């Protein structure tokens, strides 16, 4: 019985994570496809770089939906503020599963753009403050829910 208890305690501690880790991810959704690399800078701060082919214009009319796509490059700093609280409650923090606040810079290019209003000089950038919740499921997958406020 003692060996079984020790084995269970050891196996659960092997999967515990109380600080931010490096992640490489790919995503596919209704609004586009992309790849991310998240690098841990400290125990609670990460830098996330991404490359996306995503929608910039989404309109509906009687004829149907119209979506225009372009390439987006992004760089985001994230502060995960509740690792300790989640760990103390026995909740998973695997793959940086925690709440965060961030500052994001997105650069939209005209490379491979389907937007007809996009010309050679129509590249643009956004600076965004965001709040997000990241949750892990099935060990290799995670979900982000993000609220953003653009100010540039």
Describe this structure in words.
The structure is a single chain. The chain is mainly β and 152 residues long. Helix content is 12%, strand content 55%. Strands 1-2-3-4-5-6-7 form a seven-stranded antiparallel β-sheet, with no helix packed on it. β1 (23-29) and β2 (32-40) form a beta hairpin.
Estimate the global geometry from the Cα principal axes.
elongated
Strand order of the largest sheet: 1-2-3-4-5-6-7
Low-confidence runs of at least 5 consecutive residues: 1-16
- Please bin the fraction of helical residues: 10-25%
The average pLDDT value, as a whole number, equals 77
Largest sheet: 7 strands, antiparallel
What amount of the residues lies in strands? over 45%
Query: How many separate helices?
Result: 2
Order of helices and strands: HEEEEHEEE
Strand segment tally: 7
User: Assembly state here?
Assistant: single chain
Query: Terminal Cα separation, in Å?
Result: 61 Å
**Structural class label:** mainly beta
Radius of gyration: 19 Å
Record keyword descriptors for this entry:
single chain, about 150 residues, mainly beta, 2 helices, disordered N terminus
């Amino acid at each position: 019985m003692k060996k079984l208890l020790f084995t269970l305690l050891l196996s659960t501690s092997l999967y515990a994570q109380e600080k931010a880790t490096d992640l490489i991810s790919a995503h596919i959704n209704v609004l586009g496809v992309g790849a991310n690399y998240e690098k841990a800078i400290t125990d609670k701060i990460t830098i996330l770089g991404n490359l996306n082919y995503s929608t910039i214009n989404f309109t509906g009319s009687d004829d149907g939906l119209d979506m225009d796509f372009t390439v987006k490059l992004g760089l985001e700093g994230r502060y995960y503020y509740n690792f300790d609280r989640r760990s103390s409650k026995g909740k998973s923090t695997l793959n940086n599963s925690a709440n965060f606040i961030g500052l994001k810079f997105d650069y939209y290019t005209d490379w491979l753009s389907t937007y007809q209003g996009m010309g050679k000089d129509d590249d643009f950038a956004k600076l965004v403050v965001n709040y997000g919740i990241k949750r892990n499921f099935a060990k290799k997958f995670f979900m982000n829910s993000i609220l953003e406020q653009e100010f540039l």
